[in-house]
Each structure stands twice: as structure tokens, then as C-alpha cells.
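TICKET: design request
STATUS: open
ATTACHED STRUCTURE:
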């Protein structure tokens, strides 16, 4: 019996080591493929990176700051694009392990023509029509902290485009800082990055120019012109 247990334990160790080796080889091979794709397009690649704009914009959940990996940066259709994978801890345990599962997302960000007050837009699910007065409100939920910016972004032309474009059903959007973000639950795939980047670039192009023209802060009435230096 002891001999049998020893053999079983040895097999388990060997199998575990083999799985670790295979996983490491797969990660290295995948990184090499993404790096090669980036090089062909004149983009840069980093295996991992911290990026402050992502912390403010992404749906992190209870897991804290995202771990960004396979970070791509470059230009697409004349706009600056950043794409990466990130993972976060989910609130519930994964089946059979008792540990928090770690969903993986692919995120893409396009630099906007001007500053972006926080604004989120996502397609409603079929079970969540919500009380709505317009076709856009029936199809989409939006929330933001700057009503003027929200109204400028959601012009009649932008709304019509969002309603007509099928990509809007699966790609949520968040305006934050100097970027417009989207993300989806999947690993980073270069072709998918370009699909998402195309969507964001076209969205930005449909937004009226006045949305990016932020007003300067009102002058402090307590200051006189001669105080400025």
C-alpha cells in the first residue's frame, strides 16, 4: 500500500511539473506572437506595466488595482491607442476551489481630442429595458458627472450612430481623464484590439467638437487683476 501511495504521489508531482512547464511555454509563445504583431505595425509591446489612467476607468471590482499585461501602444487611424489585458478578483469563489476567480479582460483606450469628464455608456440587456422615453434610453444606460459634457457627447448624430452600430451592443464605453475606454471579457487578441480601436475612433469622430472644448474656470472674484503674476 505504501508503495502504491508513493507511486501515485510521484505521478502527481510529475503531472504538476509538466503542467507548469507547458503553461510557461504557452505564455512565452503567446507573448512572442503579440510582440511580433506589434513590431510589424510599428507599435510597442510590454509584458507588464502600470498605467494610472486605467485605475480610474476600469471595472476593478473588489480585487483592487488591475494587473496590466501584454500592453500594446501605437497609432491607429491617426489616434493614439493603448491596449492590454487585466485581471481582477471576483467577489465569489470559483467552483471547486474556494478561491476567488480571476476573470481576464481585454481593454482598449483611445486618446480623446480633449479632456473627458467621467461618462459611462453601455447597452442594456434584454431583461433590463428600464423606464425610458426614447429609443436610445431603451437601448442604453448612461451616467456621468458633467451634464453639459454628457449632452454634448450624446448629440443626435452620436445617438443615431450608436443605435445603428452593432458593436455598441457588446462594447461598453467609459470616458475618463484624457481617454475613451472599452473592454470585453476575453484575452487580448490583436485582431480584436483593432476592432475595438476602430469602434472607439469612429465614436470619437462622431462626437461634436464642442464636447472637447472645456470652459476655463471662472475667475476668483476675490483676486484683482494686478495680483496675477
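STATUS: resolved
RESOLUTION: sequence designed for all positions
ATTACHED SEQUENCE:
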Amino acid at each position: 500500500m505504501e508503495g502504491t501511495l508513493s507511486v501515485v504521489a510521484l505521478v502527481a508531482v510529475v503531472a504538476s511539473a509538466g503542467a507548469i512547464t507547458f503553461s510557461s511555454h504557452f505564455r512565452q509563445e503567446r507573448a512572442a506572437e503579440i510582440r511580433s504583431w506589434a513590431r510589424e505595425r510599428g507599435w510597442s509591446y510590454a509584458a507588464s506595466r502600470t498605467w494610472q489612467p486605467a485605475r480610474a476607468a476600469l471595472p476593478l471590482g473588489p480585487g483592487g488595482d488591475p494587473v496590466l499585461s501584454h500592453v500594446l501602444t501605437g497609432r491607429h487611424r491617426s489616434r493614439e491607442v493603448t491596449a492590454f489585458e487585466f485581471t481582477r478578483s471576483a467577489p465569489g469563489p470559483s467552483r471547486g476551489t474556494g478561491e476567488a476567480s480571476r476573470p481576464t479582460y481585454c481593454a482598449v483606450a483611445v486618446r480623446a481630442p480633449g479632456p473627458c469628464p467621467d461618462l459611462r455608456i453601455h447597452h442594456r440587456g434584454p431583461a433590463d429595458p428600464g423606464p425610458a422615453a426614447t429609443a436610445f434610453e431603451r437601448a442604453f444606460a448612461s451616467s456621468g458627472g458633467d451634464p453639459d459634457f454628457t449632452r454634448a457627447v450624446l448629440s443626435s448624430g452620436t445617438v443615431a450612430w450608436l443605435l445603428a452600430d452593432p458593436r455598441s451592443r457588446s462594447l461598453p464605453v467609459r470616458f475618463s481623464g484624457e481617454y475613451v475606454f472599452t473592454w470585453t471579457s476575453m484575452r487580448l487578441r490583436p485582431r480584436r484590439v483593432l476592432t475595438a480601436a476602430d469602434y472607439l475612433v469612429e465614436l470619437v469622430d462622431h462626437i461634436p467638437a464642442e464636447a472637447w472644448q472645456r470652459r476655463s474656470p471662472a475667475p476668483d472674484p476675490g483676486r484683482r487683476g494686478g495680483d496675477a503674476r
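CLOSING REMARK: The beta strands are 44-49, 67-76, 79-87, 104-123, 140-144, 173-184. Residues 27 and 197 are 24 Å apart (CA to CA).
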